[in-house]
Amino acid sequence: MEARYLLRKASNLLSNLSLSDNICRFLFFIILIGLWSCSSDNRKNLPVRYFQIDAFFHQQAEALSKSNIMIEKSLFVNEKHDTLLLKAKEIDWDKEFTPFMTCDINKPAYSDAYQIESIQTGIGKTLRYTAVKPSLFVQFIEIVYDELEQPASISIKTKHTSMLSKTETELWFSYTGYGIREIRKSRWWGDQKLMVIEAYFIEQP
C-alpha cells in the first residue's frame, strides 16, 4: 500500500513539472526502480514461520531431473488402472510437484492461520500444522524428520468446496516415492470420482 501511495504521489508530481516529456519519463522510470527495489527487499525480509513446502519440492525437482533412477507410476481413476515405467530425467518435475507446491502456507496472510505442534521422538521430530478454520484450502501438514534433522516424509491434506463439488485431497512424499489421492463429490447429483496417483523411485544397478 505504501509503494502504491508513493507511486501516485510521484505521478502527480511529474505531471506538474515543466520539463520535457523525455526527462519526465526518465525520472518516472528511476522512481519506479526505487519503489520496486524497496518492495522486493520487504518481501525478502518477511519472517519464515512455517516449513517452506515450495522450496523443498523445487530442490527435489532439481535433484530428480539429474538422477538416473526409474519411476514406476500408477494411475487409478475409479475402476481404471494404468502403470508406466519412466526415466526420472524425462519427467518435468516442477510440473509433477505442482500439486505439492501449491500447498505452501508460508505466506503473510497465513501467519496465524495454523496451529503448530512439534513432537520429539526417539529418532527425530514430527512437525504438524493444523488449520484453525475449515474454510482454508490446506487443512493439515505433517513433516517427519530423520535422525539427521532432514525431512523424511511429508503428508498434506487439502479441501476445496465450490458450487458444484467438494474435493478432498491427500498428498504424501518420502524418499521412496510420492502419491496423491483425490475424492471429488458432486454437491447436487451424488456422483463421486476417485483418482489415485502412486509413484515409486527405483534405483538402478
Note down, in words, how this protein is organized.
The protein has 205 residues and is α+β, with helices and mostly antiparallel strands. It has two domains: 43 residues; 150 residues, no CATH class. It has five helices and nine strands. Strands 2-1-9-8-7-6-5-4-3 form a nine-stranded antiparallel β-sheet, with no helix packed on it. A hairpin with a 2-residue loop joins strand 1 and strand 2. Helix 1 packs antiparallel against helix 2. The longest helix has 24 residues.
Quick summary:
The chain has helices at 2-15, 21-44, 53-65, 93-96, 98-101, and strands at residues 70-77, 80-87, 114-120, 125-131, 138-145, 151-161, 165-174, 177-186, 192-202.
Quickly list its features.
single chain, 205 residues, alpha+beta, 2 domains, nine-stranded antiparallel sheet, 9 strands, disordered N terminus
Radius of gyration, CA atoms, in whole angstroms? 23 Å
Number of strands: 9
Low-confidence stretches: 1-11, 13-44
| Gross morphology | globular
Let me know the largest β-sheet.
9 strands, antiparallel
Indicate the proportion of strand residues: 35-45%
Mean pLDDT figure: 83
What structural category characterises the helix and strand content?
alpha+beta
